[in-house]
Design brief:
Strand content: 15-25%
Strand order of the largest sheet: 1-2-3-4
Radius of gyration: 18 Å
Largest sheet: 4 strands, mixed
Number of helices: 5
Length: 176
């Protein structure tokens, strides 16, 4: 199944995020993401973003953070956030009710692409294969939706966090 679109909304009545995943062959899976699931998910996404070979090879943390920032901006420039989610009838192979995500798994496929598993307590969940553009886009979608919720959670990527953090005075050097 090829991914067609993702839609992420905060549903105040449920105090949850609703993730809708549609495929090119007219299937849709709906998932609930709670605060707990988000707290498990975000560090995994940050790890996925930071694990690209170009970033992992950098020994300097500032250089890694700068590369994360550059890759994030480049990926978002390739993403299409202007197209609305296609609201068409679709088959829902895992049921019409959203699945409650309680387990998060990350792996890589045989081609080295990132795979994000969003799984319920029991039964089948979904595995999303994320290229760099989709990974960064999903991070941006989460950041935007969580900012609109009343969860008091700030989701930051390393480069963005470093840029907004306070600058400490240089450490004093002592020569003996």
């Amino acid at each position: 199944m090829r991914l067609h679109q993702l839609k992420l909304d905060y549903i105040p009545e449920q105090d949850r995020l609703l993730l809708r995943v549609s495929t090119h062959n007219q299937l849709e899976v709906r998932l609930w993401l709670t605060r707990r699931a988000l707290r498990l998910l975000w560090p995994r996404l940050v790890q996925m973003v930071s694990s690209s070979p170009e970033i992992a090879l950098q020994s300097n943390p500032e250089a890694r953070n700068a590369l994360v920032g550059m890759q994030h901006e480049q990926a978002l420039s390739r993403a299409n956030f202007s197209k609305s989610f296609d609201e068409v009838p679709r088959e829902m192979p895992l049921g019409a009710e959203p699945l409650l995500v309680v387990n998060i798994r990350t792996t890589k496929d045989s081609a080295g692409r990132q795979v994000l598993g969003l799984l319920p307590q029991r039964g089948q969940g979904i595995n999303l294969t994320l290229d760099n553009t989709l990974l960064h886009s999903f991070c941006k979608m989460l950041q935007d939706v969580v900012a609109k919720s009343e969860w008091d959670i700030v989701l930051q990527l390393p480069a963005l966090h470093a840029a907004t953090g306070t600058v400490d005075a240089p450490a004093r050097k002592t020569i003996n």
